[in-house]
């Protein structure tokens, strides 16, 4: 049975002559891995970040089959003129590619990624958008950071710590005796969106993503998500160094 679905190309690698292995995050069927045979005139359709309409089959055992693609929306030129913007995009796409199970529909995540791509190309603060996406991604995956009340007492006052074990807030009174084992509450979560707070929050998000989403995954090669995350952090380290 042939299936039709829209999707976003997350990764590609060469496979023989004139073919790619593509990972495409589709709206109704989740992450699929498939083969795409191209001619020179349509090779560009298989570019990472492009939104496509795909016609494909899912065989028993999830064996690779060839796919037909129709370009729906090419990745905007703004991404190629801005290395930070491109790194932020690739960071998000590789997070999905590395942590989403194959052939499992994830409509909420799909809509978040689609909206994220549309937002960041015109955003004055793409790092803010990335942090919001990562928080939402954690929440959809079942690991919402709760910074609204103390995990120990239920108090909503003086929430100055965040537990690295649970991702929940801890009040000053409950946390002071254990402050060396707790994170300081990120200022981002209290409404501070300065550059330093955005970088701090990115590190915290990265910690919880690695803890909750990567801990049980055996990657056969280094995480590409982590590579682009480090590229983003290096960008801001360089800016700070040159100030």
Description:
The protein is an alpha+beta fold. Helices cover 37% and strands 20% of the residues. The chain has six helices and eight strands; from the N terminus they run βββββαααββαβαα. The chain has a five-stranded antiparallel sheet. Strands 7-6-8 form a three-stranded antiparallel sheet. The longest helix is centred in the last third of the chain and has 20 residues. The termini are far apart. The mean pLDDT is 93.
How many domain modules?
Answer: 3
Q: How much of the polypeptide forms β-strand, as a percent range? A: 15-25%
Number of helices: 6
Instruction: Please provide the count of β strands.
Output: 8
Overall 3D geometry? elongated
Which whole number gives the mean pLDDT? Answer: 93
What Rg is obtained from the alpha carbons, in whole angstroms?
20 Å
Low-confidence stretches: none
Helix content: 25-40%
- Protein structure class: alpha+beta
Distance between the termini: 59 Å
Q: Report the order of strands and helices.
A: EEEEEHHHEEHEHH
Profile the largest sheet: 5 strands, antiparallel
In the sheet with the most strands, the strands line up as 3-2-1-4-5
């Amino acid at each position: 049975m042939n299936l039709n679905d829209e999707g976003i190309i997350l990764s590609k690698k060469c496979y023989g002559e004139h073919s790619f292995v593509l990972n495409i995050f589709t709206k109704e069927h989740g992450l699929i891995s498939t083969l795409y045979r191209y001619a020179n005139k349509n090779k560009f359709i298989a570019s990472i970040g492009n939104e496509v309409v795909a016609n494909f089959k899912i065989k028993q055992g999830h064996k690779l089959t060839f796919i037909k693609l129709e370009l729906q929306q090419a990745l905007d030129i703004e991404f190629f003129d801005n290395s930070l913007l491109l790194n932020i995009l690739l960071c998000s796409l590789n997070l999905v590619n590395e942590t989403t199970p194959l052939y499992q529909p994830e409509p909420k995540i799909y809509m978040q990624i689609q909206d994220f791509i549309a937002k960041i190309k015109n955003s004055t603060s793409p790092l803010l958008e990335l942090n919001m996406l990562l928080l939402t991604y954690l929440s959809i995956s079942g690991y919402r950071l709760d910074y609204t009340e103390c995990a120990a007492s239920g108090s909503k006052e003086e929430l100055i710590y965040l537990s690295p074990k649970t991702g929940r807030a801890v009040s000053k009174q409950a946390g002071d005796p254990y402050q060396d084992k707790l994170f300081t509450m990120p200022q981002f979560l209290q409404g501070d969106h300065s550059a330093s707070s955005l970088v701090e929050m990115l590190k915290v998000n990265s910690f919880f993503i690695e803890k909750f989403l990567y801990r049980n995954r055996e990657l056969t090669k280094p995480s590409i998500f982590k590579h682009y995350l480090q590229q983003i952090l290096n960008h801001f380290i360089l800016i700070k160094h040159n100030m």
